[in-house]
Each structure stands twice: as C-alpha cells, then as structure tokens.
Fold this protein.
Amino acid sequence: MADVTALTFLALCLPLAGAVVAPFVIRVFGANGAWLLAIAPLLAFLHFLRFVPVIARGEVVAGGYVWVPSYNLSFSWFLDGLSLAFALLITGIGTLIVLYAGGYLRGHKDQGRFFSFIFLFMGAMLGVVVSDSFLMFLIFWELTSITSFLLIGFDHEREAARRAALQALVVTGGGGLFLLAGLLLLWNMSGVTQMSLLIGSGDVVRESPFYLAALILVLVGAFTKSAQFPFHFWLPNAMEAPTPVSAYLHSATMVKAGVYLLMRLNPIMGATPAWEILLPFFGGLTLVVGAALAIGQTDLKLKLAYTTVSSLGLLVLLVGFGSEYAVEAAALYLVAHSLFKGSLFMVAGIIDHETGTRDITELGGLMRAMPLTSVIALAAAFSMAGLPPFFGFLAKEEIYAALAGGDIRALTFTSITVFGNALMFAVAFVVTLKPFLGRPVETPKHPHEAPVLLWFGPAILAVLGLFAAVFSRFTHSALSSPISAAIRGGPAEIDISLTPHIGLPLALSVLTVLLGIGVYWQFAHARLLMAVLLRSAGRGPDHGFDLAVSGLVRLAGRITRFTQPGRLDIYVTCTFVCVAAILLVPLVVYGELPRLPVWPADVRLHEWAVFLIAAVGLAGVLIARDRLTAIVSLGIQGFAVSIIFLLFGAPDLSFTQFMVETLSVVILALVMTRLRLVSADRRPPGRRIFDGTLAFGCGLGFTLLLIRATQMPFNDTLTAFFNAYSKSIAHGANVVNVIIVDFRGTDTLGEIAVVAVAGLAILALIRIRAGTERKLAANDPDSIEAEG
C-alpha cells in the first residue's frame, strides 16, 4: 500500500514536473521536445491504467498523507470508477495534446511557456478528480480557473484574448466561492471532510434543513465551471486560446469538472425533487441553447464550442433525471464526448493551421489536399452524430432508452434531447463535410496534409471511438460500468452493444438522424434563421457580463472616492471613531462597565507633584496656540508618566518611556519645522468640539477597559512561566528584558521595523519638501514665502 501511495503521489506530481522542465526542453530540442515532454503524462496514464482491473472488480484505491491531524486535514486521494476514468482521460488525452501542441506551435517564440501552462492545467485538473479531502479538492478546483486564465490569455497581446481570459476567471472563480460555501455546509451537515466518507452520508445530507441551500451553492459552482445556462457564454469566448487548449479544455478537463462534481455528489444529494427538477431543467435549456447557437456560427471552433455547451447540458440533464438508465447513459456519453470532441477540435486546428482560416464559408474541396485529415474528421463526426459503428451510437441509444416514457416529464425531456441531438448531428457533418467536399476554394495558405504531430492525436481518438464500440463488452467492464456504479452509488452493469434497442429508442434515433439530415440540407437557411432570432432576442449574457463588470468598476470608483478622498484628517477621524466604538460599545451593551476605584488616601506629596506636572502638560497641549508648544507640552506629560513608572517600581519601563518621549518630541518637532505646516490650529469651533469629544471618548474607553481588566481575577500562569524559565532558557535575570528580547523577539523586531519605516517615511517627506523648495526658489524666489 505504501508503494501505491508513493507512486500515486509521484504520478500526480509528474505534470508539475513537466511544467518546470518544459521551457528548457523546448529551448534545447525545439518542437521535437514535445516527444520528450509527452513522457510525463504518458507515465501518469500508465500508472492509473494499472488500477483498471482493481476498480473493475468493484474495489476502490485510496491513499495520502496526513497534513494537520487536529483539523482532520490531509493530502489524500480516492480512486473509484468515476475518478479513475477522468484520470485516464486527462492523462491519456493530455499526452496526445502535448504532441499535437508540439506541431501546432512549432516555431512559436513562447512555446516553452505554453507547455508550462498546459502541464500546470493538467496537474490541476488531475488533482480535482482524484482529491478525497475537501481542502485538496478546492485548491485544485481554483487552480484550474487560474491555469485556464493563463492558457486562454496566452496570446496576451490581443485584447480579445485578455477579455476572454478575464471573463473565464471571473465566472469560474466566482462560482468557486459558492462551491466553497456549499462544501462548508456539507461538512457541517455530515461532519466529514472527505469525499469517500461523504458518500455514505447521503441520508443525513438529504434530511438536513440546510440541504436546499447547500444544493444551490454547489450547483452554482458546478454550473459556472461546466458552462450551464446562463453561465454558458464564457466557454465559446475561451476559443481565443490556441487550438490545443480548446481541444483539451473541451474534451477532458475543466469544462467537465462541474459535471464530475455533480456525478460525484449524485449518491449524496441526488434522488430528491430539487435535484431532479433543477438539473434536468437547466441541463435541457443548455442543451437547446448551445445546439441552436452552434447553428448560427461560421467559425469551426465556435461551432464545436457551442456543441460542447450543448453536450454538457445533456450530461447534466442525464445526471439529474433520476433513473438507472440515465446514469448509464451519462457514463457512456461522458467517454464518447471526450473522444470525438477532442478529435474534432484538433481537426479544426489542422484545417486552420494548414489553410490559414477557420471560416466554414471560406473552405471547400480540401479532401484531395488533406485525405487523411478528412477521414479522421468523418470518423469523429460519426461518433458525434451517434451513428454506428462508433461509441457515440451506444451513448445515444442508451440516452433514448433512459428518457423514453409515457409521462409528461419523460416526453418533455425526450423531445428536448431529440431536438438538441438533431442539431448536433447537423453541426457534426457541417464541420467535417463542408470543408472537404465540393470544389477547391482558394485559402490564405496553400493546403496540404498535416505533419505527424498534428494528425497523430485526432487519429488515435477517432480509432478509440471505433474500438470502444466494437469491443463494447471490454469497454463496459473496464470503464463504463465502474463509472456508472460510482455515479449511482451502487453496483451497475452496462451491456449495450452495437445492436440497437428495438422499439421506441431506435425510432427516436431514426427521427434524430432524419431531422439532422434535414437541418444539414437546409443549413444556410437554418443559420440565417438563427441570426434573425439572435438579433430579435437582443443582447445576451455575454453583454450582461460586460455591463456587470463596468458597473462594478464604477461602483468601486465611487466607493473609493468616498472612503479614500486623500485627506489624512478624515482617515484619522474614521480610525478613532472605530476605536472609540470598539472600546465603549461592548462595555455598555454587555454591562461590563467597571466599578470606579476609590482614590488612595496614602498619596505622598511628591507623587501629587508628578500628577500635577502631568495635568499641566495636558493643559498645555489643549491651550497651545502653535504646534511646537503643543509638542513640548505633550512631552512634559509623557515625562511625568515616566516618573510615575519609576516611583511605582518599574525602572526599566520608565527608561523606555523616557527614550520614547524624547525621540517623539525631537522627531515631531523636526517634522513640524521642516514641513512648514500651518503653525496655528485654525479649526472651526464645531470641529474642535467634535475632535475633543472623540478624543475624550477614546481616552475614556481605554481607561474603563484598563480598570475593568485590573478588576478581573489575576491569572499568574504566564508570570510563573516567565519567572521559571527566563533564567534557565534565556539566561537572563531581568524578566522583562528577556520577554522583550527572547520570548517576544519577533514582536520586538516588528516594532523596530515599524519605527524604521516611519523614520524613512519622515525622511522622504523632508527630502520631497526640500526638493520642492529648491524648484520653487529656482522659478520664483518669492513663492516660498508666499506658500509659508
């Protein structure tokens, strides 16, 4: 078990290691360095592949390291059918993406930086799907948002890329805050902080009065990550990223993180009316919106991006539908979508790379120049369209078997699914047939077949889509059934093959194909119709995001101008108002006002004299007509307090107070004289009364608090500790000095740093003033006098 834990930890670290070495490898080997860099995710893939027989037997693999035992925090992972499938997709497709990026970005000046980002992204997503502890899950969840921001904004010199990256970060990062609150509620309801333990707490969570609140918070986090309506707009905009990022993002990584979370929580939060209403509703809406918007696009990547939105909606619909067949259909479609969508995105990148354009209206007749790419594209399109003999066919058949029924709910969602699948059928063949068939069209670059690094990845994924269907029994036992069992929270066995479901499911498949062919046949009219509908619908959520961000910036500006007007007197006033409130309000509200002490009768004459000197100093501060007099009077009061410390047996504290007061008087006098401030206090009477009241309130608060503290029973635990250990540990007889220098050494260092920074600030002010005076004197010798 220890070996498995160590090897799994190493496998999780391999992408991070790849991120470190990628710039150096690319600098030495150029684009061919991709072959070396692909070794890291390949080794991780092979490691997780070892667990397939174990997971297929219904077992789980867990491990990790304890981090903070007192808070039940650990760096732990948990592998079942769902997390293992995602780990294999992330590392397997990640290996192909690394190779693909080596050819796609050949010669790019920042290729090394790109590989560092893609490896960080891979490591973050891998951490999400294998994490067991909530804390580890949340850390990696947020890392996917940060790394996707870096990848989407990779071409940071373009404004569109910067905007898309910021939008993705804001939407998914904001959703992450909701998820954090949801997981905290789950922790509160179940008392556990690990996914593997949470699975057994479903009844406790569902019966909690906080269930609905936790569900909504979790759904916001999942919906923002997986681009569910109305948060779908960020995903198509993320196409500003290079195509390798798009292919990886849509097939195996971040956009499926929300779906993974919903699948993971299905045994805990599923099987409730709220779950079975909210998920199918938003999933079905996203399915239709994404497919319809895909029809209206002409950019290959945008068409595929909107179909990803649609497919994610279909997955969410299936997870929330509530039947065993729906869970099995979700498991099948999860794998099928990863294979065909990764392949199609890479094909779109090949077309763009070799022709110089992705606009479908400017492409045609590429089959002669790119025969291999056209075959790969057609194979992936067959799977996306749900046609045999590809794995997408099995998924579509299971979807219709799951949704078909006689009640109004089943009829509604079946109709939605047929409509969405028909549109995706049409888009699949528009993307893969329109560019390759027909007469050759002149393109910005002369088209030719792509190099091996570009076609190798999509070819592998297309072939896997074929083999997974042909050898469906092995695929189900190794992958599909364990995924379904993990989503369901119990045993599952999928047995669907290339033999279709005779009856209603087959009829729905035929209907989907016929509708898809019809849309494909009239695709130009369909695109025109969608353009008209979009114009009539007005601006959508994407524009709403811009309005929200600009409104937030304006609000922040107004708040900043109100709270930070640039006047020091306002800042100081606000600070002392808060101090007075913090000191006085709790004492009054909670009835903690102290008993006023009785003035001692044994005060001697010289002690009365010191008190009188302090009072005189205070009066001098209040009646002083200029600042210098006030500073000196304040020093008199401080020296009197120092003498009081001396008389009452604290000579070391008295010496410290003498030094502080001396330095304060010197520094304040230096600043006041060098800065040429207004010499007299010219505040109006109302302001003086307010400031005096505020000063009295702060002083009264400190006085009452100190009196209340001294009336509490004295706890001599620290006194005994310092008396016992000051000599033996710190080798000092003066306990106070030992506390300051040794036990509170870091605190003392901080105080010294504060004094040093304050001194540097004062020096800077004086130098700025001196420089200003020299400039004024050079331009107008009389200006200095006028200013003073």
